[in-house]
Amino acid sequence: MSTSLHIGxxxxxxLQNDSNQKLTSRSIDTAYTIMEDxxxxxxxxxxxxTPFLCCEDSLIIxxxxxxxxxxxxxxxxxxLFSKGELVLNDPVHRQLLSTLIQSILPKSKKxxxxxxxxxxxxxxxxxxxxxxxxxxxxxxxxxxATSISLAAGLSAFPAISxxxxxxxxxGHSHSEIGLIHQSRMVIQHSAPYGSEWMDEQxxxxxxxxxxxSEGQQVPDTEKAKLKRRDPxxxxxxxxxxxxVIASWYESLLDSLLDYFVLQMEAxxxxxxxxxKLPIVYLGELSHIEGFGEFLVHNLxxxxxxxxxxxxxxxxxxxxxxxxxxxxxxxxxQDLVRPAA
Length: 340
Hints:
Blueprint: E1 2-7, E2 11-17, E3 23-29, E4 32-36, H1 39-47, E5 53-55, E6 58-62, H2 63-73, E7 81-82, E8 85-86, H3 91-104, E9 114-118, H4 127-138, E10 142-145, H5 148-156, E11 165-170, E12 175-181, E13 184-191, H6 195-205, E14 209-211, E15 217-219, H7 221-228, H8 244-266, H9 268-271, E16 279-282, H10 291-301, E17 311-313, H11 317-336
Parallel strand pairs: 1-9, 9-10, 11-16, 16-17
Antiparallel strand pairs: 1-2, 2-3, 4-6, 5-6, 7-8, 11-12, 12-13, 14-15
Helix pairs in contact: 3-4, 5-11, 6-7
């Protein structure tokens, strides 16, 4: 069996492929809400058969149940992750993450099964990566850290490419780009900038503010997100009028591509032996009108060689990432099988 776990900023997803090639997908939201630990609240949650965690004088309701309870009881929702890490790296939040993973990652039925996983941050040695690795091990799997760009590439590259090309991901808490050749990552770079960062920059530049629960004035990222998602926004470089949103996209791609291109220049002799490769791109920030042209323009300006006839926007990105991560897991399983 092959298994993948994708820990996103807003949800956790697993995909498993059994010996009969049957795919099983599971997911759960990462937001949670908190209720006061009273007899009445416990009875209320038990009556609804809603799972909860106990913490000091509070009841923590995780996952999709949190959205329902928060709406019904007029309670705030809290994010489990921020900027690629647990909001609070304390026992309560670690236990909450453990509970979420256990709910969608069943115990391994066979020793040595691999589970490839991806986390929302950019640091492969982060405390979050180490924690997730430990939690996967407790479920009986051998953890295998991989990247969204590799997984997306393996799933979305055209068959003629022989699992080679460029994969670009612009997500919630980070962005990344990878050059993949015959299923192996050759060059990769990530940056801690995604829609979370962009919405905060937009809110500040447009002077959109709100007051939080502690009475502090903070950037109104929800209003900024609505402006960013305006269907009338187009960031094509061939338009005469450029929006403030396009300038933030420019800043993000600069941070992502500049160092990536430097790495490519150090491998120029090797890269000249490759054919022009396809590009796949995906992620929350890739859905804006004109982004494909914007990306091609930025890559071309940096003299990156690619096949301009094979630039593909991955629409069903969650499934694509999960399927590609399954491929990573299966390849690793095949490598160790002869030695077993």
